[in-house]
Structures are given as structure tokens and as C-alpha cells.
Amino acid sequence: MSILSKQKLPLTRLLKSRPSNAFAPLARRAFTSAAPLRLQNRIYTSVRSSDELSSLLLLSSTNRTPLITLWTASWCSSCRTIRPLLLSLIEKEAIGEKEGGVGYAEVEIDSPNIGSVASQYFVNSIPTILSFRAQEAVLEEKVTSLAEMKDKEFMRLWIENEARRGGERGDGGGISTGLFGGLFGLGEKK
């Protein structure tokens, strides 16, 4: 008897008449609005405007993956040294994929359309590596030391750590961890 027939059958009989693997696809893929736990690392094109950065931040937040940015300029020779190392770790070695994946983009601060985005995120040296989680800059984890950037093992651990914290919020201004929280004693325990 066909399931599509107009006769009403008890639910238990309907279920028994179906093959045992009929519900297998449903069991394997439950509906969820959350992103998959393991995403591949993504390499984005260079950011040359504040709108492009905003779009990448939104995309990264939607995927619940951190966006790792290398702040660079065309005249920066150190940036040309750091770029291949980061690309190798993120793209070829897939560092961070096991922890949930990361996005990577280079922000060109000397682009005519970029505006004052660098000062907005307190990027005052080039190169700088800055991570964003849930559209918020993680200022406390910013890497500005050239020696640390050239240290492959340090960068491997840093990327893994950022990927592990992918869905958490950044340091965008809470009282205890915000930019001025420690200056005025607002974050002190009493």
C-alpha cells in the first residue's frame, strides 16, 4: 500500500511500512540556524574601502569565525615578508580549521578609499595583525611586533587561539576589558 494513498493508516503502521533507512537523511542533517562547527579557512581579497571591511566583518560574524586582518601598505617592505608566512599558515597548512576556521584579509591603509579606518581600530604601526570576532576588534590580542610576526610557531599558536574563540565577543568596550576600563579603575574588583 502506498503512503500517498488516501486511506488513513495508524502512524505506527505507516512508519513500519517504510524502509528502515527512509529517515536516515533526516537523522544525519537536523535543521539548525547555527554555522557548522568546522569551516574551512577563507582567504578574501584585499580590503580597499571601509565598506569592504564592514562587509567582511558581517560575513565573518554570520559564519561565527574570526576575521584575521593584516594591515599593510604598498610601501611596507616588512609586510611583504609577513604576508607569505600568514598565507602559508592559513591556506596551505590549514591552521585554525580544526578549531573552527578563520577568515583572512589584508587591509591596504594607503588605498584612496579606505579613509580613517586604521585610526578607528587604533592601528598605528604597519604591519599590524588584528583579529575581529563578532564584528568587534580584539585590541588586546593585536600583534604589532615584527619579531612575533616572523616567528612561525608564535603565529601558529595565535591563529589557533583566535579560531578557538571564534564565536565569542571581542573587546569592544565592556567596563572591565574596554579601552579605558583599566585607566580609571572601572574594572577593579572591590
Layout of strands and helices, then pairs:
Elements: H1 11-17, H2 24-28, E1 42-43, H3 50-63, E2 67-72, H4 77-92, E3 103-108, H5 117-120, E4 128-133, E5 136-137, H6 146-150, H7 152-164
Parallel strand pairs: 1-3, 2-3
Antiparallel strand pairs: 2-4, 4-5
Helix pairs in contact: 4-7
Structure explained in plain terms:
- This protein has 190 residues and is an alpha/beta fold.
- The protein has 7 helices and 5 strands.
- The protein has helices at residues 11-17, 24-28, 50-63, 77-92, 117-120, 146-150, 152-164; strands spanning 42-43, 67-72, 103-108, 128-133, 136-137.
- It has a 5-stranded mixed sheet with strand order 1-3-2-4-5, with helices on both faces.
- Strand 4 (128-133) and strand 5 (136-137) form a beta hairpin.
- It is globular, with a radius of gyration of 23 Å.
Properties at a glance:
alpha/beta; disordered C terminus
Mean pLDDT: 77
SSE pattern, N- to C-terminal:
HHEHEHEHEEHH
Report helical residue fraction: 25-40%
Please provide the count of β strands: 5
- Count the DSSP helices: 7
Which percent range describes the beta-strand content?
5-15%
| Secondary-structure-derived class | alpha/beta
Write down the overall geometry: globular
